[in-house]
TrEMBL record:
GO terms for molecular function: calcium ion binding. Pfam families: EF-hand_7. It comes from Paralvinella palmiformis. Gene3D superfamilies: EF-hand. The keyword Isomerase does not apply. This is EF-hand domain-containing protein. InterPro entries: Ca-bind (IPR051581), EF-hand-dom_pair (IPR011992), EF_Hand_1_Ca_BS (IPR018247), EF_hand_dom (IPR002048). The keyword RNA-binding does not apply. PROSITE patterns: EF_HAND_1 (PS00018), EF_HAND_2 (PS50222). Signal peptide: none annotated. Residues 56-91, 92-127, 128-163, 171-206 form the EF-hand domain.
């Protein structure tokens, strides 16, 4: 059941669905929701709140961070940092947010960068899992541009099995672009390696067994 469960979720990304199997993303939200009650470290609490909402919690933060960074400096002060969290539904106790901000602000200069923030909030993941995710990205990035594009996914992503293609509502390109949006935090119509990694790092947090994670990644992407 467990193998079918996780395989089903990645199969959904490739264009087919199994409505009878619990979605692994729901399991992820459930796990992080439970951690909210037990976590004591401010960063861990913030991470738990972030991913208890959705698997793409970091993607939501990325978009909110970009909007808050009016001067394109790539950094935020505490109040801007707090507003970013509120905009993504994380209206938490100010004392907790200050402690988390201080942990991210390692040089104590009163500002944090986007890279520092996402690195702190990204769930821990084993190096061999990261290597597997990188292998998949390199396979999909056919032209070695550093991005997965619509053209790269041709022949890999099976849009023709998507329900909205089957009922004539969406074209193949529309289905594929909707798939890209699952990862695309910057909304530039393509998937960077960081965006791809962040998605699967979050997904990895819901899969305890290394063999299952390895199996579903290899079968989903034909490694």
């Amino acid at each position: 059941m467990a193998v079918k469960h996780h395989r089903s979720t990645l199969s959904k990304h490739l264009g087919w669905y199994d409505p009878d199997v619990i979605n692994v993303e729901a399991e992820l939200r459930k796990k992080f929701a439970a951690r909210i009650k037990t976590a004591t470290d401010p960063i861990e609490v913030l991470r738990a709140h972030c991913f208890s909402q959705c698997i793409t919690g970091l993607k939501s933060l990325t978009r909110a961070f970009t909007k808050a960074d009016k001067d394109d400096s790539g950094t935020l002060d505490f109040r801007e940092f707090q507003r970013v969290l509120i905009r993504t539904g994380l209206d938490l106790d100010e004392k907790l947010i200050r402690k988390a901000f201080s942990q991210v602000d390692t040089n104590s200069d009163g500002i944090v960068s986007f890279e520092e923030t996402t690195a702190a909030l990204r769930p821990p993941v084993a190096s061999h899992r990261l290597e597997l995710v990188q292998r998949v990205f390199l396979k999909l990035d056919k032209d070695r541009s550093g991005y997965i594009t619509l053209d790269d996914l041709c022949g890999v992503y099976n849009a023709k099995k998507h329900p909205k293609y089957l009922n004539g509502e969406w074209s193949e390109d529309r289905v594929t672009m909707e798939f890209i949006k699952t990862f695309d935090a910057s909304r530039d119509g393509k998937i960077s390696e960081d965006e791809f990694r962040d998605y699967y790092v979050a997904l990895s947090a819901s899969i305890d067994n290394d063999a299952y994670f390895d199996l579903i990644m290899r079968q989903a992407w034909n490694l």
